[in-house]
Amino acid sequence: MAAPIIRVRRLEKCFGKLYVLQGIDLDVEVGEVLVVIGRSGSGKSTFLRCLNFLEEPTAGTIEIDEVVIPAGEPSREHRVHIQQIRAKTGMVFQHFNLFPHMTALGNVIEGPLTVKGMSREEAIEIGERHLGRVGLMDKRDEYPARLSGGQQQRVAIARALAMEPKIMLFDEPTSALDPELIGEVLDVMKRLAREGMTMIVVTHEMGFAREVAHRIIFMDDGVWVEEGTPAQMFDNAKDPRTKDFLRHVL
Predict the structure, then answer these.
(1) Quick check: 45 pLDDT over 90?
(2) What is Dmax (Cα atoms) for the chain?
(3) Which residues in 17-125 belong to E strands, given as ranges?
């Protein structure tokens, strides 16, 4: 059996005296879609940001595709390993963070050009392929201001995919969108799941979780409270905190 592509052990994160993550353990298999749910402030986004070291963990170890990084004082080796992990993980945020002075294609090819040092021709070929994957080849030359929120988020997904990651992390990718635009972003994510992309998704979209997730984890106050398949979580949750949360969102 193949080793998990993500291993997290005893992960902790505190801001001063506030513990946001409290000893989290997690394995994620290649091709698995893991959905993390919970109330605002439960630590979900901090957990995702620790995975690619946008937040430096306070304690614990993160391993992604055989790159192991223990929490600790940043050293040169530590920084090198962080860059290796970031090369393997694409992240899509709640807010799209596109460069306003660049076209859709320009945003998508910026990483391959500056981080990977590709030729412009090679980067454009990759950029156009991924804009096609998210259904936006016809918008390649448009600037973000001329795109809807859903289109901007799809460009952001294409930008992450252009780096050819092995894992995609989604942090509330639809929460800044108008309701009528949410479906077009979720459709792209469903397609990625069908193609076998390993994904960790923080979301309040329970329909997506039920349809696409292999496993759902309910998080509260910085700890994993309960996990299971969508059927187990939605139809037969055990913990009172999980039941109460689902009662309010379903």
Answers:
(1) yes
(2) 55
(3) 18-28, 33-37, 59-64, 67-70, 89-92
pTM score: 0.95
One-letter amino acid of 172: E
Looking up tokens 């039920």 gives 210
* Pair 174, 206: CB distance under 8 Å: no
Q: What is the pLDDT of residues 223-238, one digit of tens each?
A: 999 999 999 999 999 9
Identity of the residue numbered 158: A
Q: Report the sign of the C-alpha dihedral through residues 140, 146, 147, 152, in that order.
A: positive
Regarding beta strands 59-64 and 67-70, do their DSSP bridges make them parallel or antiparallel, or are they unpaired? Answer: antiparallel
The pLDDT value given to residue 104: 97
Residues paired with residue 12 on neighbouring β-strands, in sequence order? 22, 59
Token representation of residue 28: 């994620």
* Angstrom distance (rounded) from CA 184 to CA 15: 36
Instruction: Please tell me whether residue 40 adopts helix, strand or coil conformation.
Output: coil
